[in-house]
Specification:
Helices cover 29% and strands 23% of the residues. Helix 5 links the parallel strand 6 (118-121) and strand 7. The protein is α/β, with parallel strands linked by helices. The strands form four sheets. Strands 4, 16, 17, 18, 19, 20, 21, 22 and 23 form a nine-stranded mixed sheet that branches. Strands 5-6-7-8-9-13-14-15 form an eight-stranded parallel β-barrel, surrounded by seven helices. The longest helix is centred in the N-terminal third of the chain and has 23 residues, at 69-91. The protein has 13 helices and 23 strands. The chain binds ligand LLP.
Length: 493
């Protein structure tokens, strides 16, 4: 740590978490957290693709999700190029399925397709978006631990490239439905390799205790010694309604280190080789899922796609050599890493209030030394309805004053929403200029993934629209809800 930042850290509030330093420049945009075409203009205002946020507010209002289409496309290409290069000599390249659950609308499906990626969906509703956008079914995958018969029929109607089957019961259901239709469903089996990934580290322990996937642990079926995974491979290859393509795993989300992905790849390759040896079943595909992390705050350290791809490729290469098998075709399913940093949420500041808090007894003011410190609450015009992640996952975010720069000193602030919940926090801890005032605009970066997708109408707030900026021009790709939208399912009876 440089002497300067050590010094600034000392000036920080005792209420701040350990990881949060006072930024050297409160007006600066930390590049890893922003779209590549986000910048401040000469007037000091945040812009994307050259368009100032005040202009976006004037045209579309706030709150607003502001997405850089250029950045989305660049990140999609970067992921695809990195993995294709790393795996070129192993299996001819990698199929990249964008995980639509992170953010999905028809425009994004088209960008994905135009950039040469495929689409991963997780429900009939996501399939409907894919169908409306016109992407060929062959480029679409369907996930889900509890697919309905209707969803399975829809997948078959759309001639999906793969249905990722999650359980033995579902395998039989998919096979039987396809057989009755006189078809064969293209199936991948989702296995749980026992790699439990956390954000910064992975723990190589059997993660059996969750709802997804077929266990690879022995004796997880009624047949002695057989794992659910093995039983599924045998059952799938014997079923006339199933064309078994291969295996799938997804070890978690917001993961920085490549080790967990590599370990999962190794486990699945060993299993694949064992199936080949025991049943002479050759499985041509291996999908290693998504989960690649992004920077939400300055201390997050995502790895470049190329670094992760190289690390995974090295393990696939050596494991296949060790097992004496040809590598299956590899696919991956990044969501957050493609869309997360493309977007910021633009809010207008309203109410401000400062409380004094004892650093040791934070909430109740029950100070043991009578020393208290200020924490400023900055209320914005959205909240947990447009970003549920802080409430759901204790997720940390960052924020900047977007409508102008300021020379004022840093003040520890908590950005909160307008909902009737004290837990309605958008950014738990951030240093903002002391002179932030009502009417200023704040921008929270990194809100492209799982924010709009998880948004709600709590307190009858209208969900914000999504604006996409491409080459200096902005357009709504999802309009914001109106009061009429809010009322139009109310039957009034
Ligand atoms: N593939 C499968 C099978 C998945 O379940 C997921 C995410 C992905 C791919 C994409 O993962 P990503 O690359 O986006 O990390 N709502 C949570 C994240 C839930 C992830 C669900 N599955 C959050 O906001 O952090």
């Amino acid at each position: 740590m440089s002497p300067q930042s050590e010094d600034s850290r000392r000036q920080g509030s005792p209420l701040a978490p350990d990881w949060l330093s006072v930024p050297a420049d409160l007006n600066a945009l930390e590049p890893k957290m922003w779209a590549q075409d986000a910048a401040r203009n000469d007037a000091g205002e945040l812009t994307v693709g050259g368009i100032p946020v005040s202009e976006l507010q004037r045209q579309y209002g706030t709150p607003l999700y502001v997405m850089s289409e250029n950045d989305f496309r660049a990140r999609a290409r970067a992921f695809s190029d990195a993995f294709n290069n790393a795996f070129a000599d192993i299996c001819g390249g990698v199929d990249v399925y964008y995980a639509g659950k992170s953010f999905l609308c028809t425009a994004v499906v088209r960008w994905v397709e135009e950039e040469g990626l495929r689409l991963d969906t997780a429900s009939g509703g996501e399939l409907a978006v894919a169908a409306k956008a016109g992407i060929p079914g062959a480029d679409v995958a369907l996930h889900g631990n509890n697919k309905s018969d209707l969803e399975i029929h829809r997948a078959l109607d759309m001639k999906l490239g793969r249905i990722v089957v999650d359980s033995l019961g579902e395998l039989v259901r998919v096979g039987d439905i396809a057989e009755r239709r006189g078809e064969k469903a293209k199936v991948m089996l989702r296995l749980t390799p026992g790699v439990h990934a956390h954000t910064h580290e992975f723990i190589a322990t059997a993660h059996e205790d969750q709802k997804f996937g077929l266990s690879m642990a022995a004796d997880t079926t009624e047949h002695a010694g057989l794992s659910a995974a093995e039983e599924a491979v045998a059952a799938a290859s014997a079923h006339p309604g199933i064309d078994l393509l291969g295996l799938h795993c997804h070890i978690g989300s917001q993961i920085f280190e490549p080790d967990g992905f590599a370990l999962a790849a190794q486990k699945l390759l060993r299993f694949l080789a064992a199936m080949q040896e025991k049943y002479s079943i050759v499985l041509p595909e291996l999908d290693l899922g998504g989960g690649y992390g992004i920077a939400y705050t300055p201390v997050d350290t995502p790895r470049p796609a190329a670094e992760i791809a190289e690390a995974m490729a090295a393990v696939v290469r050596s494991t296949c050599a060790e097992l004496g098998i040809d590598s299956p075709r590899i696919s991956i399913e990044p969501g957050r890493a493609i869309v997360g940093s493309t977007t910021f949420t633009l809010y207008e500041v309203g109410t401000l209030k400062t409380v004094r808090v004892d650093a040791t007894a934070s909430n109740n003011g029950d100070a043991d030394n009578n020393v208290t410190h200020p924490r400023r609450y900055v209320s914005v015009d959205g909240g947990m309805s447009d970003n549920a992640r802080p409430v759901l996952y204790d997720a940390d975010y960052s924020a900047i004053l977007a409508s102008r720069t300021s020379d004022a000193g840093p003040q520890l602030s908590r950005v909160v929403g307008k909902h009737c919940e004290s837990g309605d926090i958008v950014v738990r801890d951030v240093y903002l200029p002391e002179d932030v005032a009502a009417g200023d605009l704040l921008a929270v970066p990194g809100t492209g993934a799982y924010c709009w997708a998880l948004s709600s109408n709590y307190n009858y707030l209208a969900r914000p629209g999504v604006v996409a900026v491409r080459d200096g021009s902005a357009r709504l790709i999802v309009r914001g809800e109106t009061e009429e939208d809010l009322l139009n399912r109310d039957m009034g009876v």
